[in-house]
Design goal:
Rossmann fold, 11 strands, single chain, two-stranded antiparallel sheet
């Protein structure tokens, strides 16, 4: 296990099961293991014209993915043989994740972004991984922020064949206490030391994930949350850490 810039307060804030949280660190009232639903449901099988106004058909292949337990508007960028599923936090959308998505596409990865229509957070991660596998992607990395990060950790224990690696930024909103000890693939967690209670949850996950080879915990100063890292002074450090971690454990062909 390797720790980088690990700055943990002497008294770790108690870990709680919480809802997704905004980039400013304020929490939201959202039911555990649930995701936000959009106000409009697409016509059956109809592809969206864009995702959140920042991803269009010129940037990605857009579709509506209707799985057994979830429905989502999907954008797939790049055509690499290693796929990355990005699941965002409750209070935001795909747009703040574009710096990471674009960096990964440049590095040769196929990146799936999505907007939820119906279904739980964990089921969405599982179903989007299935979609990539149906397109011939054998190696998959799960990346998520806040609710999406915690859902990625839980989903990694359910997806078969197993995913290659997991990255969680400020994971929370779903109880990962049972899932963390079952993580058998590399796990990177990034969190701000004053982002309570997410910092405590990350420390607890790191301690419990003893079966995860090469797991890493990157704790940064402040209280920046999830995709807020990409808009912060630490943006380049976090982007580099995530991309290099993925390259180390799931190199694009």
């Amino acid at each position: 296990m390797r720790h980088r810039l690990l700055v943990v307060p002497a008294v770790i804030i108690a870990v709680a099961v919480i809802a997704g949280c905004g980039a400013d660190g304020t929490t939201e009232a959202a039911p555990p293991s649930a995701v936000s639903t959009t106000s409009e449901t697409p016509e059956e099988g109809a592809a969206p014209t864009d995702l959140d106004g920042c991803v269009t058909a010129s940037d990605a292949t857009l579709s509506t993915n209707e799985a057994e337990s979830t429905v989502a508007r999907v954008a797939i960028m790049g055509d690499g043989d290693v796929g990355v599923v990005i699941s965002y936090e409750t209070s935001r959308n795909v747009c703040p994740w574009l710096p990471l998505a674009e960096r990964l596409v440049e590095a040769g990865y196929r990146v799936l972004l999505y907007d939820t229509v119906s279904g739980t957070a964990t089921d969405h991660v599982v179903d989007r991984a299935v979609l990539l596998r149906e397109q011939g992607v054998d190696h998959i990395v799960l990346v998520g922020g806040s609710l999406g990060g915690a859902a990625s950790i839980v989903a990694a224990t359910e997806i078969q064949p197993a995913v290659t690696a997991v990255v969680s930024l400020s994971g929370g909103g779903i109880d990962t206490a049972d899932a963390a000890p079952m993580i058998t693939m590399p796990l990177l967690q990034v969190v701000a030391e004053d982002d309570s209670p997410f910092a405590g949850a990350a420390v607890q996950n790191d301690a419990a994930a003893t079966q995860s080879p090469g797991r890493e915990l990157l704790v940064l100063p402040g209280r920046v949350h999830a995709s807020g890292f990409f808009e912060s002074p630490d943006a380049e450090q976090v982007l580099t850490a995530v991309v290099e971690f993925i390259q180390a454990h799931a190199a694009a062909g």
